[in-house]
Amino acid sequence: MNPALRIGFDMDGVLADFAGAYRSVEQRLYGPAVPPSRPGNPEEEDDEKPARAAEDRSATEPPSGRTLRRKRDVVWQTIQATPDFWTTLKPLGDGSVRRIHEMMLRHRWEVFFITQRPATEGDTVQRQTQHWLVDQGFDLPSVLVIHGSRGGAAAALRLDYHVDDSPNNCIDIKGASAARPLLIADPADEAATMIARRLGIGTAASIGDALRILEDVSLTYTQPTLLDRLARLVGWHPIGNRD
User: Fold this and answer.
1) Does 241 map to a domain?
2) pLDDT value for 239
3) 3-state secondary structure 29-67
4) I need a labelling partner for 58 at 20 to 30 A (CA). Which of 117, 133, 162, 221 fits?
5) Are residues 114 and 155 in the same domain?
6) What CA–CA distance (Å, rounded) separates 210 from 88?
7) Is the CB of residue 179 less than 8 Å from the CB of residue 169?
8) Confidence of residue 168 (pLDDT cuts 50, 70, 90)
């Protein structure tokens, strides 16, 4: 019997369409004609607030920059005042969460959903995320809301693999744990893909692509030669070389 792989999944940008939800709030507040601003990573929102406040006080920042930052802050204030906001996001991929559930049962994976989402009105982030995953077809989801190092969490959970859309998270995971990060990267961004692979970080074009890779991992896990061949195709360093 194959060993149970322990696999972590990030939420926003991997399974849930936070960027689309952010844009909907922005359009509701400022109108559809307003050029979209960069939503950023919701997991970094609390860390960015002190820096943005300091920059807003800077006399050297152009007025347009201060305006964009204030607009972004208003969008975030609206998000955090929305009861159970995290339950309203649309899924990324067609049935990806349900597919993870099916693959978990078939391959005996131990699956963890890891997020650093900021709190909103309503239920806790953990419960909102659990409700959303259940609605998408995953019963009894293990959701961890963490603060701090994603690599530290991966090490504590003894993950074998982790899927994320943040290069910083993937670098942290590779440096602080034995887990193999799999970065979901825009296929058009060849530079990001090349840098990730140079660092030994695997890449996938979408959550569907990532799941195909993880299924191949499960099917070849007891065949070191095939697993090393897959690792090279994806961008991971060979099994015997994690450095």
Assistant:
1) no
2) 54
3) HHCCCCCCCCCCCHHHHHHHHHHHHHHHCCCCCCHHHHH
4) 117
5) yes
6) 24
7) no
8) very high
| Residue 70 structural domain | 19-86
Please tell me whether residues 228 and 130 are part of one structural domain: yes
**Which of 57, 86, 115 is the last residue in one of the domains?**
86
Tokens in use for 157? 């959970």
| Pair 115, 187 in one domain | yes
Each residue of 36-83: pLDDT tens digit? 777 767 876 655 554 454 445 455 667 667 888 889 999 999 999 999
Dihedral sign, Cα of residue 46, residue 44, residue 15, residue 220:
negative
Cα(175)–Cα(155) distance, rounded to whole angstroms? 10
SS3 70: helix
- CA 117-204-46 angle, to 5 degrees, is 15
164 close to 181: Cβ distance less than 8 angstroms: yes
Number of domains in the chain: 2
